[in-house]
Amino acid sequence: MANIKSAIKRLRQSKIRHLRNKAGKTYLRSSIKKVRLAIESGDRSLAQTLLPKALSAIDRAAAKKIITRNTASRYKSRLSRRVDALLKST
Q1: What is the greatest pairwise CA distance in the chain?
Q2: Domains plus CATH for the chain?
């Protein structure tokens, strides 16, 4: 345990930030997972309605530096491609 006052404060801030980032990452992962499950089940309308929410969650996570911009871009691209492929398939 830290003895110096600034180190104690830094530890306290670190714990708060960790919890906030963890919550944001959990929300991100669950929103992506919902879209993936909709795609795998073949539910076009559900996938189409969940995609904008997932893209928004990805953008929010990138803006808050929970994930990097390139990772966000990759997630968005892959999800969009899979939803488009689902919509085009007959």
Answers
A1: 66
A2: 7-88 (1.20.58.110)
Residue 35's H or E segment, with its range, is helix 5-41
Tokens of 48: 């189409």
Q: Which residues of the chain have pLDDT under 70?
A: 90
b/e code 44-75 from CB counts within 10 Å (16+ = b): eeebeebbeebbebbebbbeeebbeeeebeeb
Provide the pLDDT for residue 90: 59
- The CA distances from residue 78 to 18, 25, 81, in Å, are 28, 18, 5
